[in-house]
Design goal:
The chain has 341 residues and is of the alpha+beta class. The protein has twelve helices and eleven strands.
């Protein structure tokens, strides 16, 4: 009996294509899927995906790390290495808020007044940093909104030097140089300004002070490093011998004022906690009632100011002390700037 022609014969006379025993064309999609993918391609694709994920992660980390930091942090590279206190002010951010702009008009901050007296127009400044040095020394870094005429602020360079005399006669600053077209660095002595020229563009602050400045956020902040004696200034008077920082974070017409104080022992921290609570109660009295007129606070804010101090949170954690208050703009500015002069 003749063999019946199988559908698996070699030729498909209608299509002229070679078929396999599973009745699928050799070049069909299903057959192609069965081909093995090169391990090199798999490894390459995996490596590419890893690189993309790593780059995205680093970008997100850097954005998160810098989010909320004071804009004046980039000026710390021009602060003397022996600074004991640094305070930063972002005038661009403050002036963008009606509440803070009004508060500054009612009661300018001590360091802002110092800039005015040194011959700077507040409208010309973007931000600035001031520093206190040992033996009552001083330095500051000013960032202008636009590059100014340099001869308006500095005389010709000293012979053989890369800095010149500051033209203002009503300030403690005597010498300076332009770090770039919009950044003016000033100090009270030639020795300090020469040291700044020599230290390069990296932050050279003492480790404790650098750690405190890294904690700061917002447009107004003040940080101190390790100290063995009471320096002028509100946070240090609470006994924070291992460093302190105070800053404000604006929220509408209010701000969260935050502090961190560090001590050499838990006993010092307990004493500091008691002292800080007493100081906050003292500031409450100064900021309201009759004292409120002297601090530049609007009487309509007094109830909110009292509430802010009454509801302040002071938390002790080992050798570290943290505090948080929510205050109207004018009082938040005043408190954050205490001791910055």
């Amino acid at each position: 009996m003749p063999r019946q022609r199988s559908r698996y014969d070699d030729d498909d006379r209608r299509g002229g294509r070679r078929r396999t025993r599973d009745d699928e064309p050799i070049d069909s999609p299903k057959s192609a899927r069965k081909k093995r993918i090169s391990p090199v391609l798999i490894l390459g694709a995996a490596a590419g995906a890893f690189v993309l994920l790593l780059a995205a992660g680093i970008t997100i980390y850097l954005i998160a790390r810098n989010a909320g930091k004071p804009a004046s942090a980039d000026l710390l590279a021009y602060v003397p290495a022996d600074a004991t206190m640094v305070a930063g002010y972002d005038l661009d951010e403050l002036s963008s808020s009606e509440a803070y702009r009004t508060a500054l008009e009612r009661q300018p901050l001590p360091d802002v007044i110092g800039m005015d007296r040194s011959g700077f127009r507040q409208a010309d400044l973007s931000r600035f940093v001031v520093a206190r040095l040992p033996a009552n020394g001083s330095a500051c870094v000013v960032r202008f909104k636009t590059a100014p005429e340099k001869s308006k602020y500095l005389g010709p360079d000293q012979p053989g030097k890369k800095y010149g005399p500051f033209t203002s006669l009503t300030t403690v600053y005597r010498f300076g140089y332009f770090a770039d077209a919009s950044t003016l660095v000033l100090a009270d002595t030639e020795q300090t300004i020469q040291a700044l020229r020599d230290q390069g563009s990296k932050v050279q602050l003492a480790s404790e002070l650098k750690e405190m400045t890294d904690r700061a956020r917002g447009p107004v902040w003040r940080a101190t490093g390790r100290t063995t004696q009471g320096e002028p200034g509100f946070p240090v008077r609470a006994g924070a011998t291992s460093g302190s920082v105070i800053w404000l974070e604006p929220s509408g017409s209010f701000a969260d004022v935050k502090m961190e104080l560090r001590f050499g022992s838990t006993g010092e921290a307990r004493n500091g906690s008691t002292t800080l609570r007493g100081l906050l109660a003292q500031q409450r009295g100064l900021a309201t009632e009759f004292g409120g007129f002297r601090t530049g606070n609007d009487p309509s804010d007094w109830a909110d100011i009292r509430r802010g101090y009454d509801e302040s949170q002071v938390v002790e954690n080992g050798t570290r002390l943290t505090a948080r208050l929510r205050l109207p703009a004018s009082e938040a500015l005043r408190l954050a700037a205490l001791g910055a002069n």
